[in-house]
Task: structure prediction
Amino acid sequence: MRIGILQAGHAPDVLIEQNGDYGVLFEKFLGGLGFDFDIYSVVDMEFPASTGDAGGWLITGSRHGCYDNLPFIAPLEDLVRDIWSQALPLVGICFGHQIIAQALGGKVKKFRGGWSVGLTEYVFEGEKISLNAWHQDQVTCLPNHATVTGSSEFCKNAFVSYGDKIFTLQAHPEFDNMFLKGLIEHRGPGLVPPELLDQARTNLVQSNESFVIKRKIATLFKSSKVDS
Result:
C-alpha cells in the first residue's frame, strides 16, 4: 500500500542532516510494515495531483500554526476535506491533528496553559501510555463528527477519531529521544520556557510507548479496502 506523507513543516537544519526531515521520520517509523511512501512537501506548496495518488495519507507536524496566514494552509484544508469525502484513511500528527480538525469544522488556538514538551502521560483507549510531545497549540473545539479517544491532564482532545477512516493525535510518536534532544537544543531555546526544557531533558532517559501508536496507524491503513 502506498502512503502519501504530507509534510507540513521542516525540522531544524542540523536535525535534517542527522535524521532526515519530518517525512523521513515517518518513513522510518512505519518502515517494515509493508508500506511504500511518497513525500509531498506541502509547506513548500508541493501537493499531490489527486487523492488517488496514494491509498492512505498522513499529515506531519509543523512549527507553523494552522491559523497562520500561509499559502499552503487553505489547499491543505481542501485536500483534507477531499480525503474525508472519499473515505480514504488519513492520519494527523500534532499540526496534522490540528489542521484536520480545523478543516472539518473545529477550532485550534494557542493554549493558555502554555507548552507540553517531552515525555507526557496520556490515557488512550482506556490505557495509560507515555509519548513525546512538542506543542503549544491545541484543538479547542471539535467538529461534530469527531470522537475523543484519549487525553492528558494538559490536553483534553489529545486523540481523535472520525469514523473508522481518520485518526489523529497531538503527541509525536515518530520522535525518538535523540530527535527530541535535538529539538530541545536547537529549537527550544527562546521559544519554550527553560524549566520545561530542563524537565524534558531529565525525562530523556525514559522510554515511551510509541509502538502502540505505530500499531494503531498500521491497522488503520491496512484495514482500508483502497490500495495504491
User: Anything to note?
Assistant: The chain is about 30% helix and 25% strand.
